[in-house]
Amino acid sequence: MAESTKQQVMEIRAALSHALGTAENALESARHEEGVAAARWERVNAAAESRRRKLAAARDERLRSIQEWHDTELAALAGAAAGAADRAAPGAAGEPWPSWEATPLPKAAELRIGRLLLPAPPGRPAPPGDQPGRPWQWDEQSPPPDPETPEVPALVQLLDHGHVVVHGDRALGDDVVAGLLLRALGTSTPGTVQVIGHDPEHLGGGLAGFAPLAPVRVLTLVAPNGLGALLDDLVAHVRRINETVLAGEYSSLRELHAATNRRPEPWRVAVLLGAGELNRHERTQLDRLLRTGAACGVHLIVHGPAVDPAPGIEVVTAAPGDGARIGSAGDLPVRLDPGPPQQTLTATCRQIAEAVAAGPAPVALDSLLPRPDEEWRESSATGLTAPLGDSPRGTRVKVTLSDYPPHALIAGPSGTGKTNFIYAWLGSLAARYSPAELAFYLLDFKEGVSFARFAPGRRDQSWLPHVRLVGVNVNTDREFGLALLRFLGGELRRRADAAKQHEVTNLAELRAEDPGGHWPRIVAVVDEFQVLLAGRDAVTTEAVDLLEDLARRGRSQGIHLVLASQDVSGIEALWGRPALVAQFSLRIALPRARRVLAEQNTAAESLPRYHAVVNSDSGATEANQIVRVPSAGDREQWSSFQHRLWRRLPKDSLPPRLFDGDARPRLADSPDFRALTPDDSSAPVALLGETIDVMSRSARTVLRRAPGRNLAVLGTRVEEACAVLATAGLSLAAQFARDGARFSIACFDPDARAAAEALHARIPDCGWYDSSNVDWLLEDAAAESTAAWPADRPHFILLYAADALPGGRTAGDQLRTVLRQGPERRLHVLGWWRGAGLLRDTLGGQGSRTDPIGAWVALDVHGSELAPYYPGAGAPNWYPRPWRALHFDRSVHRGAEVIIPYGAS
Ligand SMILES: Nc1ncnc2c1ncn2[C@@H]1O[C@H](COP(=O)(O)OP(=O)(O)OP(=O)(O)O)[C@@H](O)[C@H]1O
Questions:
Q1: pLDDT tens per residue across span 861-877
Q2: Which end of the chain has less neighbouring CB within 10 Å, N or C?
Q3: Any known ligand binding at 810?
Q4: What are phi and psi of 705, to 5 degrees?
Q5: Bias regions of kind Pro residues — which residues (predicted)?
Q6: Neighbours of 754 (CB within 10 A)
Q7: Does one domain contain both 380 and 348?
């Protein structure tokens, strides 16, 4: 081989070997890179996997939390819906049948017909009762409702809202109608829902369960051909209610009720069953009612005749299982309740029928009251006007006291609601007129305390702000009636004088002329006033004279009298004075009241319970207004009303004067006693008891330095005699500084000893004497009485049972000396004799002068026995009665006055 060839081979070989090396290197590096790439791929792959897992976990977590939120939200919404439904349909409106009972509600509620089937959260099975296809029923086997999914009732609005139209399954629809009707009846006061049924196919069979309501006319079934007449009748009601009841003031009965608490018209629910075709007239009337009835309380439940959906009409599609729907719940399935159990239906209808047969249910007092923010807005300048209730036609009956009619006469046999009528009237007035516009003086001659609620009592410290005087249990204290009339006579004079001064003739003008003056109208109510006029005596004569004057002149001075009696026909004192009776032109007759209206006016004879005839024209038939009187007897309702008004009074307002004939007044409460100060008066006053008058004045006798200024208490009643002496002693002691006067007590009756000792203990430095040492006192007092030197201070000698004074003639002479001569030397005897004759013995027997006794208080001593101590003709008119006394002071009285001893204080 040539060298060059070899050379070439070697070069090639070298080149090949180089190329191989390079290729190997490249392979190596490629393999390396492959390894690196594979490793990276693996890393990326692993990372991607882990990220996917994380994402999946995050997604699951998110999904779970969304689900949880959804579940909670759903449960909360279902709970809220159930709560709202409970509020919208409380008690008998929403209670399921097994536990259902009638519960009248204060206002119309929505009514349950079944329940809404809300979607169950996934993962929680629907309660077995909701499984499609399984008939739902209220029975013992029904599974208990799931506590976590509150049941949401399906409610429809009927009373005060609209109408219900039922389509679909006939039998289930009948159940819906029966359930709705029973719930409507059971949620309202018996008699306030009236059902009128038209059932031409089954002739009323569709409403057979409600039959017990027919005799009391809560259910009326109209004849098969009576649909037109029924619809006409309802349309007429709507027109009348719009015209006279709503009268342009309210847009619906619901609004009227909300504003005034009155419901003057019943709800009328017409149930139209059967598939018959309506004629044109019927269709027109039906459409009218569907449009306008609900505002006037006329509601339709239609199950048969076709009705187009419209606002205010709830459409119920009756179907089994979860196929039922109600228009207001959209697509939500509804499970309808079964019809009401027969037993519940019958029992409820019987109850309602009984309640209706027993008479109309009372109307609440609230219906007479304005809204609290409208209270005390009226001016009484020209009169006092207040509603008393509704007439049977639904209009409000208002009553006015003014110049005409100025005064009222109310009559009603016992138990017919006379007292309730007065309460309602006073409440209606008190809510409208402030105490600056109106003042009440109330006197009740009936036994009992019917007006006591207006004054502060032990349990309730509030009072009706307008009341200035309340007299209760005054049936034996006719003098109190006289005192009221005298007081009003005084007020009349005051007003007449002011009118004269301002040159005006009536209250309205006086108020205009004297805007700063306090001139409220006064309403004085005297219940059972015949008691005041019962006797043929001085009290009756004066009372009738005062009444006549007040009735005649009070009208223009804003003083109004309201006299009430069980039977005005028996009040001879009134009927003998036609001019007096004529002033009482406002007449109010409760059921079966006689004589209070004009003779031919017999309206009161046929009045239903809780109604009254109000007549502003002296009882003339044409002026009759029948009113259904609300019940004002509920103490709680009254009390919350009274408290509301009372809280508006300024803090320092004075309560009314309460005169309770059964209570013993306390000396400590006497304003006259409280006003006494130790001023060592030269004309000391002995208080004796409380007078029977409008102010709680104390009866008094002034023991000035003058002959006859002694006091005798006469009678055998120890407790009362001791009470009078204690009052006298304590009141005298209150007028002197410690040494300003001398007091001596002598007691000769063991029964009086405790009381005498008690008084002794309360008068500082008081001398104590009894049979053993009274001779000292008498000797000393007789000497004092005849002494020549002037007395430096008064000496009061209180003798308990002076007729039992020991010491024979000497002591008798000494006591006579003291009685005759002592007062001029400031020595006064306040003695208790246990009989008028015994005092006469002390004074020297028959024929002796009685003028040493200038003042006396008689207890159980008859008027005739008092004649010797009573100057002028005859004896005082006095028949003793418990815890009352007759007081006479010859230095100030023309006649004797009745007083009430103060009880223990
Ligand atoms: N309008 C009414 N609504 C509801 N209840 C009433 C109404 N009027 C009276 N009543 C009730 O009837 C009963 C008798 O009423 P009230 O005491 O007013 O009669 P009265 O005529 O004053 O009887 P008396 O003279 O015997 O006291 C009371 O229980 C009262 O609550």
A1: 999 999 999 987 688 88
A2: N
A3: no
A4: -75, 95
A5: 119-130
A6: 11
A7: no
Residue 715's region, left for phi above 0, alpha for psi from -120 to 50, else beta, is left
> Mean pLDDT throughout 514-543?
91
Q: Three-class SS of residue 108? A: coil
Q: Are 547 and 453 contained in the same domain? A: yes
- Over 50: is that where the pLDDT of 137 sits? no
Q: Establish whether residue 591 lines the binding site of ligand 1, counting it when its CB lies within 6 angstroms of any ligand atom.
A: no
Check pLDDT > 70 for residue 128.
no
* Residue at 761 is within a domain: yes
Predicted confidence band at 148 (pLDDT cuts at 50, 70, 90)?
low
367 CB under 6 A from ligand 1? no
| Per-residue pLDDT tens digits for 93-106 | 999 999 999 999 98
- Structural domain for 794, as ranges: 667-900
State the average pLDDT for the chain: 90
Complex ipTM more than 0.85, yes or no: yes
- Is residue 610 lining ligand 1, measured as CB closer than 6 Å? yes
Number of domains in the chain: 3
CATH number for the domain harbouring residue 321: 3.40.50.300
413 marked among binding-site residues: yes
What whole-number distance in Å separates Cα of residue 846 and Cα of residue 276? 107
Instruction: Note whether 455 and 476 are same-domain residues.
Output: yes
In DSSP terms, 560 is beta-bridged to: 523
Contacts 24+ apart (CB under 8 A), 481-484: 481/443, 481/445, 481/526, 481/529, 481/531, 481/532, 481/539, 481/543, 482/532, 482/539, 482/542, 482/543, 482/546, 483/692, 483/693, 483/694, 484/441, 484/443, 484/524, 484/526, 484/694
For residue 395, give the nearest of 266, 258, 244, 257 by alpha carbon.
244
Tens digit of each residue's pLDDT (9 = 90 or more) over 234-244: 999 999 999 99
Same domain (yes/no): 288, 381: no
Find out whether 457 is annotated in a ligand binding site: no
- Note whether 375 and 319 are same-domain residues: no
Which of 49-58, 157-166, 411-420 bottoms out in mean pLDDT, i.e. has the lowest? 49-58
Same domain, 766 and 825: yes
**Mutation pick for ligand 1 pocket among 416, 420, 442 (CB with most ligand atoms within 8 Å):** 420
Distances (CA, A) of 246 to 266, 269, 524, 705: 14, 19, 35, 77
Confidence band for 138, pLDDT divided at 50, 70 and 90: very low
**Predicted confidence (pLDDT) per residue in 645-658, tens digit:** 999 998 888 899 98
Whether ligand 1 lies within 6 angstroms of the CB of 631 is answered as yes
In three-state secondary structure terms, 651 is: coil
Give pLDDT, residue 875: 87
DSSP class of 324:
B
The atom of ligand 1 lying closest to the CA of 448 is: 27
Q: Which one of 602, 633, 660 terminates a domain? A: 660
Size of the chain in residues: 905
Q: What angle (nearest 5°) sits at the alpha carbon of residue 363, between those of residues 360 and 365?
A: 155
Residue nearest to atom 2 of ligand 1 (CA): 631
Report the candidate in 833, 827, 865, 855 with the shortest Cα–Cα distance to residue 748. 833
In a domain, 80, yes or no: no
pTM summary value: 0.72
Residue with CA at minimum distance from ligand 1 atom 15: 417
Question: Best of 368, 419, 592 to mutate for ligand 1, by most ligand atoms within 8 A of CB?
Answer: 419
Which atom of ligand 1 is the closest one to the Cα of 423?
Answer: 18
Residue nearest to atom 23 of ligand 1 (CA): 415
What are the pLDDT digits (tens) for 161-199?
A: 999 999 999 999 999 999 999 999 999 999 999 999 999
Q: Is 82 a member of any domain?
A: no
Q: Are residues 392 and 467 in the same domain?
A: yes
Q: How far apart are CA 242 and CA 249, in angstroms?
A: 10
Task: Answer for the pair 546, 482: CB distance below 8 angstroms, yes or no.
Answer: yes
389 touches ligand 1 (CB under 6 Å): no
Nearest-atom number in ligand 1 for the CA of 413 is 21
Count of other CB atoms within 10 angstroms of residue 652: 5
Domain boundary among 660, 691, 706: 660
Query: DSSP secondary-structure letter at 589?
Result: E
